[in-house]
Design brief:
Layout lengths: L18 H18 L3 E4 L2 E4 L14 E3 L14 E3 L14 E3 L14 E3 L14 E3 L14 E3 L13 E3 L13 E3 L14 E3 L14 E3 L13 E3 L21 E3 L5 E3 L26 E3 L12 E3 L2 H7 L4 E3 L5 E4 L1 H54 L10
Parallel strand pairs: 2-3, 3-4, 4-5, 5-6, 6-7, 7-8, 8-9, 9-10, 10-11, 11-12, 12-13
Antiparallel strand pairs: 1-2, 14-15, 16-17, 18-19
C-alpha cells in the first residue's frame, strides 16, 4: 500500500478570524482527514472501514470490509462483504461471500458463495462453498463442506458434512454425514456419520448416531442409535387420526401394530419363524371360550354399533398366549389371528374324523352289500333246489 503524506496545519490566530471563514476551514480540514484516513478508503470499487481491513488486497474488486482486520488477507477475492471483528479475515481468493459478525467466516480462504451471520458463524470454513450459517457458532467448525444451511446457535456447529440443513439451537451440531435435515433445538444433535436423515421437533432424532434414511417427527422422538430406514412419529400421543385411510378400498395383507407401536404385516413365510411344529390339541382351548355380543362405550364408538367377539380377560384365563398386552402389561385385546388359526386346526381335526367315519361307513356298506348279495344268491339257490324237488303233477280220472 502506498504511503500518503499528510500536512499539519497550524491554527494560529484562528480565533481572530471571522466565523464564516473559520467554518470553511473546518469543513476543508474534515474532508482532508476523511480522504487521508487509513480507516476508510475506496480503491478499485472496494470499501474498507477498520484497522487492517482489506489490508492485503491486490486485485480483488467490489469487496466491502467493515471491522477490525475484516478481510485482512484478501488478495484476489471479489464481491465479498465482511462486517465485524476479523470477519473473513483470512480470505484470499474466495468470491461472493457474506460474513456478518465477529470472526464470521474468519478462516475462509478460497471458499465461494458462503453466507455467515453471527459470531463465529462459519468461522473455520476454509474452502467449503455455498454454505449459509445464521447464528452464533452456526457451522462454526465446518472446513470443506458444501451446500449446508444452518440457522440457530451452534446449528451444525461442528459439522464437516455436506448438503445438510439444520434449523434450531445445536441442531446437527456434530454431524459429518451428508444430506441430513434437522429442524428443532437439539434435533439430530448426536448424529455423527449418518446421512439422509430427517428430524423435525425438539430433540427429534436425538439418539441417532450412524444410521441412514431415518425420519423422526415429534418432540423427543429420540430414535435408536445406529438404526436405519426407520420412521418414527410422535412420542406422547395416545390417539392418531390420518385422513385418506378409512373408507379407502385397497387389496393386500392386513396391517397390524405390535406392542411397541410398530406397524407392519404379520409374515407367514417359514423364513421368519422358528420352532415350527403341529398345533395338536392346543387349539382345543377355543372350545372353552365364550363369544359375546356387545357395544363399545360412547367415547370409543358414538354410534354404538353392535359388535361380536370375545372378552380379553376371559380369554386370558383360558390361554394367556391368545391375548395382547399394552405398554403397562395389561391385556387389551384378543389375538384374533391366533383364534382363526386354532379354529382352522379344530376344523381340520373334525374334518379328518368325518373322513375316517365316511371311510368306515363306506367299508361297512360295502360289507353289508356283499353279504346281501351272498344271501340273495343263497336264497336263489335254495329256491331253485326247492323248485327241482317238487313231485311231477299226475292226471286223475274222474269216475
Amino acid at each position: 500500500m502506498k504511503t500518503k503524506k499528510t500536512t499539519t496545519l497550524h491554527l494560529r490566530k484562528s480565533i481572530a478570524r471571522s466565523p464564516l471563514r473559520f467554518g470553511f476551514f473546518l469543513a476543508a480540514l474534515a474532508l482532508t482527514c476523511f480522504a487521508l484516513s487509513p480507516m476508510l478508503q475506496a480503491q478499485d470499487q472496494n470499501t474498507r472501514l477498520g484497522f487492517q481491513a482489506l489490508d492485503s488486497n491486490t486485485t480483488g474488486d467490489k469487496n466491502t470490509a467493515i471491522g477490525y482486520r475484516a478481510m485482512r488477507d484478501n488478495r484476489a477475492g471479489s464481491e465479498n462483504t465482511a462486517t465485524g471483528f476479523q470477519a473473513l479475515s483470512n480470505n484470499t481468493t474466495g468470491d461472493l461471500n457474506t460474513a456478518t459478525g465477529a470472526a464470521a467466516l474468519r478462516l475462509n480462504t478460497t471458499g465461494h458463495e458462503n453466507t455467515a451471520m453471527g459470531e463465529n458463524a462459519l468461522r473455520n470454513n476454509i474452502s467449503g462453498d455455498s454454505n449459509t450459517a445464521m447464528g452464533v457458532g452456526a457451522l462454526g467448525e465446518l472446513s470443506t463442506g458444501f451446500d449446508n444451511t444452518a440457522v440457530g446457535h451452534s446449528a451444525l456447529g461442528f459439522s464437516t458434512g455436506g448438503a445438510n440443513t439444520a434449523v434450531g439451537v445445536s441442531a446437527l451440531v456434530r454431524s459429518t454425514g451428508n444430506f441430513n435435515t434437522a429442524v428443532g433445538d437439539i434435533a439430530l444433535d448426536s448424529n455423527t456419520t449418518g446421512s439422509h436423515n430427517t428430524a423435525l421437533g425438539w430433540r427429534a432424532g436425538d439418539n441417532l448416531t450412524t444410521g441412514d434414511n431415518n425420519i423422526d417427527i415429534g418432540s423427543s422422538v429420540d430414535g435408536v442409535a445406529g438404526e436405519s430406514n426407520t420412521i418414527r412419529i410422535g412420542s406422547a400421543q395416545v390417539r392418531t387420526f390420518i385422513k385418506g385411510i378409512s373408507g379407502a378400498v385397497v387389496s393386500g395383507a392386513a396391517v397390524v401394530v405390535n406392542a411397541g407401536g410398530q406397524l407392519g404385516v404379520a409374515a407367514s413365510s417359514a423364513r421368519f419363524k422358528t420352532e415350527i411344529k403341529p398345533m395338536g390339541n392346543a387349539s382345543e382351548a377355543i372350545l372353552a371360550l365364550r363369544p359375546v355380543s356387545f357395544r363399545y362405550k360412547k367415547e370409543i364408538d358414538p354410534d354404538s354399533t353392535p359388535q361380536f367377539g370375545l372378552l380379553a380377560e376371559e380369554v386370558e384365563k383360558v390361554s394367556p398366549a391368545m391375548v395382547a398386552r399394552d405398554a403397562q402389561g395389561k391385556v387389551y385385546t384378543v389375538r384374533y389371528d391366533a383364534v382363526n388359526a386354532m379354529l382352522l386346526n379344530e376344523f381340520l381335526k373334525e374334518h379328518r374324523k368325518v373322513q375316517e367315519l365316511t371311510k368306515d361307513f363306506r367299508a361297512t356298506v360295502a360289507q353289508l352289500t356283499s353279504r346281501l348279495d351272498e344271501q340273495a344268491a343263497l336264497i336263489q339257490k335254495v329256491s331253485a333246489q326247492l323248485e327241482a324237488s317238487k313231485p311231477a303233477p299226475q292226471l286223475v280220472k274222474n269216475p
